[in-house]
User: Which sequence fits this backbone?
């Protein structure tokens, strides 16, 4: 096999020439590229360290992967040196190398925390803030809905819905557009009878016909009224009683003849003693008189015993009265709404409460500083008696009170319900002498029928200092419309 040394072109590869010992450590022994000559422009005798200026220096680290792994394993990890912090330089921010004096303020150094005292919030503070936020949210939602509806209708005009000009109403015209066809000359400011157009041939709206609106069916069908019993005179009632008793006596006599009943003993009295007994009374009148008196006594005791057996007990009397007062309200419920200016008198509150309970009526009494509302639900008879109480029997103008001492407001539970409606309650009108006290009255605002009761938990008192509290209370029973009726009620002046 031929060797590479036999070939002259490979001789240097097999036997490389020995490197000059004088040039040991001079890098790769390759001149620099001409484009890098300006980096090495020095004097001829100058050298960079021990390397001539025109030679590329050799790297002082391993370039192969194998040598790099060995170098990494040999390197030792330096231990972290913990030095004491410079507290003064830390306290002085101006010594910080990243400190910018242009952004400096009067107090640069960190301040110590100042201790604060406890601050207690008043009751209802955050509830009031939450209510305000809810009101604001509802207002914003309403504005957004109005804006959306305006966009849907195609009205591109910007409407002013918040300023005072949007709230201010325009002055009504002298003649409305719906009244103009009724007038001969709509330009006349004061319409008179001779100006009204009664000519039906020329298309006048006024005719001789009367328009009867279509009747609306009631919410529930009460059914036909029951037939009323025939009213009889006193003489007719006596005659019927006499005939009935005579018929019963004849039936009893027939049963005695048939042997179904034993014969009755003669009803002997001192007055008919001689006529009934005859000879027996003559033979021994003392004995007969004693027997007659004993029979009279036994008949009287039997009569009393019969009456006692028929007499009702206290529980039966109570049930009878309850059955008489309680009416069937499964189909129709009668409702009456009253407006009272002032209910601060405990005596009047007691009458309002106890009569509603005795008549088995349900409802609510709203006690408000401005006005009070009484709502009762029940049968027609109970509502009729309660109306008589509120409108006739109670003297609302009487200013005398049972409780002359000012004992404070009505005691309320967590839901605002009164425990005892007879306790005196302070009124804002009494405390403020500058306000003139209105005449206390009771007015029937509305009376009608509904399908079912709204207040099913009896008759209760509620004290509401504000209109918002009243609405919040009535919303639980879906009865806010009653309060609107009372607020908008105007007493007739006739």
Assistant:
């Amino acid at each position: 096999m031929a060797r590479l040394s036999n070939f002259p072109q490979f001789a240097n590869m097999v036997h490389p020439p020995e490197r000059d010992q004088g040039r040991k450590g001079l890098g790769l022994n390759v001149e620099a590229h001409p484009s890098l000559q300006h980096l090495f422009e020095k004097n001829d005798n100058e050298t960079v360290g021990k390397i001539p200026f025109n030679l590329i220096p050799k790297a002082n680290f391993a370039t192969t992967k194998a040598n790099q792994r060995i170098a990494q394993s040999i390197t030792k990890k330096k231990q972290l040196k913990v030095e004491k912090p410079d507290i003064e330089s830390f306290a002085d921010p101006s010594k910080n190398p990243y400190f910018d004096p242009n952004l400096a303020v009067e107090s640069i150094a960190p301040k110590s925390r100042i201790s604060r005292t406890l601050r207690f919030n008043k009751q209802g503070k955050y509830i009031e803030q939450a209510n305000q936020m809810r009101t604001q949210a509802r207002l914003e939602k309403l504005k957004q809905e109005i804006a959306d509806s305006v966009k849907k209708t195609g009205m591109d005009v910007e409407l002013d819905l918040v300023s005072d000009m949007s709230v201010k109403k325009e002055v009504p015209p002298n003649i409305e557009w719906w009244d103009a066809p009724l007038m001969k000359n709509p330009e006349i400011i004061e319409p008179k009878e001779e100006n009204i157009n009664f000519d039906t041939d020329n298309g006048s709206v006024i005719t001789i016909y009367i328009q009867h609106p279509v009747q609306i069916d009631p919410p529930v069908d009460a059914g036909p009224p029951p037939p009323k019993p025939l009213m009889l005179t006193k003489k007719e009632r006596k005659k019927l009683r006499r005939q009935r008793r005579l018929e019963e006596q004849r039936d009893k006599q027939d049963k005695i003849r048939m042997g179904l009943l034993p014969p009755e003993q003669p009803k002997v009295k001192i007055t008919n003693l001689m006529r009934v007994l005859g000879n027996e009374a003559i033979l021994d009148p003392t004995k007969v008189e004693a027997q007659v008196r004993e029979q009279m006594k036994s008949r009287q005791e039997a009569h009393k015993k019969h009456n006692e057996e028929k007499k009702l007990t206290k529980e039966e009397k109570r049930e009878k009265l309850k059955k008489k007062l309680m009416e069937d309200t499964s189909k129709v419920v009668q409702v009456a709404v009253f407006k009272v200016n002032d209910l601060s008198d405990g005596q009047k509150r007691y009458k309002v409460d106890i009569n509603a309970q005795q008549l088995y009526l349900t409802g609510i009494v709203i006690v408000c500083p401005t006005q009070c509302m009484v709502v009762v639900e029940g049968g027609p008879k109970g509502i009729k008696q309660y109306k008589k109480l509120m409108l006739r029997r109670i003297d609302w103008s009487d200013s005398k009170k049972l409780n002359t001492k000012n004992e404070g407001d009505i005691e309320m539970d967590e839901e605002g319900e009164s425990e005892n409606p007879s306790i005196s309650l302070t009124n804002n009108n009494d405390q403020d002498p500058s306000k003139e006290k209105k005449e206390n009255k009771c007015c029937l605002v509305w009376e009608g029928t509904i399908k079912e009761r709204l207040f099913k938990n009896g008759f209760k008192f509620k004290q509401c200092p504000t209109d918002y509290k009243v609405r919040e209370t009535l919303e639980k029973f879906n009865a806010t419309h009653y309060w609107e009726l009372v607020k908008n009620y105007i007493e007739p002046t006739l």
Notes: The chain has a mean pLDDT of 77. Residues 125-152 form the longest helix (28 residues).
